[in-house]
Amino acid sequence: MYQVESTAAVARVHRALLTRRLNVSRVVVLLGLTSLFTDISSEMVATILPVYLVYTLGLSPFQFGIIDGIYQGSSALVRIASGFLSDRTRRYKTVAGVGYGLSAVCKPLFLIVGSAWGAVGAVVLLDRTGKGIRTSPRDAMISLSTPHEKLGTAFGVHRALDTTGAMLGPLIGFGLLLLTPDSFDSIFVVSLCFALIGLGILALFVKNPPAETRAEEPKPRVTLRAAAGLLKGSRYRALVIAGTILSLATISDGFLYLGLQRNLDFDTSFFPLLFVGTSFVYMILAVPIGRLADRIGRGRVFVSGYALLLLVYLSLLLPSGGAGLLVVYIAILGTFYAATDGVLMALTGAVLPASLQASGLSFVVTATSVGRLVASIVFGALWTWAGLQNAVLVFGACLVLALAFAAIALRRTSGEAARA
Amino acid sequence: MRSRRGLGFVLLTTICVVVAVGFVLWSALGSRGASEAVAETVQPVSLPRDAVIFRSLDRADAKAYGRVAIVSRTDPSGPRELSGLTCERVYYAAGQGICLAKTGAVKYVAVLFGSDFRPTHEVALSGFPSRARISPDGRYASATVFAAGHSYASPGQFSTTTTIMDTASGTVVADLEKDFTVTKDGKAIDSPDFNFWGVTFAADSNRFYATLGTAGATYLIEGDVQARTAQVVHENVECPSLSPDGTRIAYKLVGDSGVWRFHVLDLATMTETPLAETKPIDDQIEWLDDDSVLYRVDEEIWTVPADGTGSPERYLAAADSPAVVRP
After folding, report:
1. pLDDT at B272 over 90
2. CB distance A286 to A157 below 8 Å
3. ipTM reported for the complex, 2 dp
4. Are B230 and B222 in contact (CB under 8 A)?
5. Cβ A110 vs Cβ A190: under 8 Å
6. Residue A324 has pLDDT above 80, yes or no
7. What is the 3-state composition of chain B as percent helix, strand, coil, each rounded to the nearest 5?
8. Distance from the Cα of residue A310 to its chain's centroid
9. Which of the 8 DSSP states describes residue B99?
10. What are the CA-CA distances from residue A389 to residues A251, A262, A263, A394, B22 (Å)?
């Protein structure tokens, strides 16, 4: 029944997209739908997985945290490898399909492996590996099937659909748990069904982008050396560096919510609502901001997004303005995501040669996510030792410096993209 | 070609919807029947003076899975008497019991009960049950839960809530994280990442020990319920359990290899003795007597001497969450 509802919603989104004449490629919408169903599938499991592991298998969430933590790193390596492999073979669809398929297969495996926590760990590893594998070939397909001047819109459309799935997933997961209190089996079965539908869309409807999409380039050989050589290109290098230092100055949303909670003094039970609120704003704004980026310059929008983040930092330093302001901050945070996540992919896609799309995109994603992880650890330590205010001051100062650098570094890239 | 793909997709979606809806309906109806069956038997039980109370985990009798049960301490393989309470974690001392129970998909309560095993009070819990204790005189109860909201995406992060309840009134007396001032080396410390878990009460009930986790480290704290203060007394201690004579603490220690190993800390000399059980086990130990301890291994209760000698032995099959009723 959820399927029917979400399919109807998807049809509405699809119609809305067509009527507004966004003219994004069919592949982009289809990949968006694949992500939507896959995200419903994975997020509904992710939401209940801690409860499942501790309740049914007797694992402590602490043990689960260890399982999860160990495999975060391996997923980054897989992502770079799969990016390179996709470029090398040009079989983006196949590589992405393996990733989506692997995660789908994991859902019934959770039921089969039972309670051995080593085996459960292995299934979580497989699931994460699947996610690592599919990300870069999928983003490369979006980039390859979209003309340069439409990249911001295309990634906006994909991220809007993707986020829709990420919002529906937990709702469906908890809904099922209410309906069948003790049956985690039904969650894994329903999750598998959503995953198969997502995989079906990819397998049946998405066409692998042809090699000659961007005909201006001769057939270059995809080698490790060529992939590493990407960093010699000044525009790509500027993006990687700007993206990484900005991510190093980013306070993770978990900490921001905690800081806001201390400052505005609202009940901690609202926390899940903050995540949903932020995702909702992101979902709504992903497409309009993507279009805006295509018009006025993606570098400009990207840097402005981080400038918005600075506003949220400021709110943590000012005296409390009442809980009503929370809505404003959540809106700003959602806008920040809409202006940075997909837009960075669009920026990067535009400067990469067609032959190295997946490798180049995967490296940027990995560099920025490692940056965020480091930032989280540092921020947590600073908060503990120097207090919230000082920690925010340090990160605010770093963000100002990073913004100045990024604004200068991206001016050229952004200008060219806007004219293109 | 295109229509064949379309047909394939319609077929796939139809199968998926039918399987999903069918499975959900089937399990929804199935679980309803089961919960009715569990509710039917609530009989009082007679408690022998020298007994072990535990959670019965006999999978052969699915309806009684998780039910609180009683065996003689001297004859643990003898007949077990089942009570009407079903719990995730149970503890009992001095005629007063606490049962952390699941009441909804993600709803949990602490059920306080008397020596007749009839509930006296219910206290709402804010997350998944982890530890439960009753003070030796039955005055206070304590529960540790994992607070809701740990995400798949936040590695290594978890959050606990530990409360102390008054058993007579069924009210929460204190939340360790909110209400207590902790000192370390004479200085007050505080951090947003503070987590407390695993309370164990001393003979006077007012004094207690627990674990404080912060910045990746764990500490043994010694607290005072009335004064709302606690001080750090040792490092690397999780889930402490005070011996009946009050001289030692059995606990989990994270060794160099990064896994837990049960140890016993002598409070007078502060010497740590590893126990003969080498498996990494996540449980709060229960002392069988002053010489040996009980703990959970998968779905069984095992015992090992408390001085590091001997070897682990199975004490009770298909059981966990032991509470020794001291004569």
Report:
1. yes
2. yes
3. 0.73
4. yes
5. no
6. no
7. 15, 50, 40
8. 21
9. E
10. 13, 11, 10, 9, 53
Q: How far is CA B9 from CA A201, A407, B62, in A?
A: 7, 46, 41
How many angstroms separate the CA of residue B326 from the nearest CA in chain A? Answer: 28
- Tell me if chain B has a CB within 8 Å of the CB of A114: no
Sorted by sequence, the CB contacts under 8 Å of residue A173 that are 6+ apart come out as A43, A44, A45, A47, A48, A187
Burial of A224 (0-12, 13-18, 19+ CB in 10 A): exposed
B181-184 and B229-235 beta bridge pairing: parallel
Nearest to A216 by CA among A293, A151, A148: A148
Distance separating alpha carbons of residues B117 and B130, to the nearest angstrom: 21
User: For residue range A253-300, what is the model confidence (pLDDT) as tens digits?
Assistant: 778 887 887 777 776 666 667 888 899 999 999 999 999 999 999 999
Q: Which residues of chain A have a CB within 8 Å of the CB of B104?
A: 178, 181
Helices then strands, counting H and E runs in chain A, come out as 15, 0
Q: What is the DSSP string of B283-306?
A: ---EESSSSEEEEEETTEEEEEET
Query: What average pLDDT does this structure show over A349-371?
Result: 91
- Who among A45, A69, A262 is closest to B155 (CB)? A69
Residue A122 in tokens: 């292995």
- Look at residue B310 and tell me whether its pLDDT is greater than 80: yes
pLDDT digits (tens, 9 = 90+) for B169-225: 999 999 998 899 999 999 999 887 788 999 999 999 999 999 998 877 899 999 999
Of A144 and A16, the one with more pLDDT: A144
Contact criterion met (CB < 8 Å) for B128 and A61: yes
Does the beta carbon of A193 lie under 8 angstroms from any beta carbon of chain B? yes
Q: Which of B13, B19, B105 sits opposite A181 (nearest CB)?
A: B105
Question: Is B76 in a helix, a strand, or coil?
Answer: coil
**B chain contacts of residue A272, beta-carbon cutoff 8 Å:** 148-149
A402/A383 Cα distance (integer angstroms):
21
pLDDT at A99 (0 to 100) = 95
Q: Among B320, B94, B123, which residue's Cα sits nearest to residue B201?
A: B94
- Within 8 A by CB and 6+ apart from B254, the residues are B218, B236, B238, B260
Q: Which pLDDT belongs to residue A43? A: 86
Which member of B105, B153, B215 has the closest CB to residue A384?
Answer: B215
For residue A65, count other CB atoms closer than 10 A to its CB: 19
Instruction: Identify the pLDDT of residue A157.
Output: 95
Which of B 150-169 lie inside 8 A of A, CB atoms?
150-158
* Angstrom distances, CA of residue A252 to CA of A132, A323, A364, B110: 21, 21, 18, 34
Distance between CA atoms of residues B286 and B323, nearest Å: 7
Say if the Cβ atoms of A262 and B192 lie within 8 Å: yes
Mean of pLDDT values over B34-62: 66
Contact list in B for residue A121 (CB cut-off 8 A) is none
Phi, psi dihedrals of residue B192, rounded to the nearest 5°: -65, -20
